[in-house]
Write a structure and sequence with these properties.
197 residues, alpha/beta, 3-stranded mixed β-sheet, globular
Length: 197
């Protein structure tokens, strides 16, 4: 891999465009990924925010569930925001019928934990490993992490709840850094991808 890693954004549903822009500004070559053959060509992957149940069903429909699990198990760096965090959880506390995760982080996540759409908010969040002060977190029907296993590291909390977790090459945030114009979380992820290369 060159100094410019190729990072995909899972483009089944959700705020794909914003992640593509944030990754490009963090010096990655960003491209949408919808099919297994596109997944095979990237060095890392972002799973965006959106509707986790819909995303899970579309992943199955597009034949992406198993390829995603295999790449993540194989060590491909992956970053999930909001719904992406839910998909990366090994366990969901309150799954909808038929909702599956791809797993990768030893954590239990509660969907919509911070409330409904009209209870969305922004907050300054201090994230371990990110210099320059807190990042602005946009929480939209956001999950939180109920608990983590021994291998997972809590990297941010808000209001006593875990909102960012890292485990090896996997990173997940409850909030949406791609909506703020502050691309430090994406830069951290790009560095994670480079480190694997």
């Amino acid at each position: 891999m060159s100094d410019t890693p190729v990072i995909g954004v899972l483009a089944l549903q959700g705020d794909v465009r914003e992640h593509l822009i944030a990754l490009a500004s963090a010096d990655a070559l960003a491209r949408p990924v919808r099919r297994p053959e596109e997944l095979a060509e990237v060095d890392g992957l972002v799973i965006p925010g959106g509707e986790s149940t819909t995303m899970s069903k579309l992943a199955a429909l597009f034949g992406m569930t198993e390829p995603l699990r295999e790449r993540i198990r194989g060590g491909m760096p992956v970053y999930g925001t909001c719904a992406g965090m839910i998909l990366l959880a090994d366990k969901i506390l309150d799954p909808r019928a038929g909702q599956e995760t791809v797993g990768g982080i030893d954590m239990i996540v509660r969907r919509n934990a911070f409330g409904r759409q009209n209870e969305s908010f922004e907050a300054a969040v201090r994230v371990a490993g990110i210099e320059g002060g807190p990042v602005e977190g946009v929480f939209i029907r956001a999950p939180w992490v109920e608990s983590v296993g021994a291998r997972a590291e809590v990297v941010a909390e808000h209001d006593g709840h875990i909102v960012a977790v890292r485990q090896g090459n996997a990173l997940a945030t409850s909030f949406h850094p791609e909506l703020t114009g502050d691309h430090r979380v994406h830069a951290l992820f790009v560095d994670m991808v480079r480190a694997v290369g």
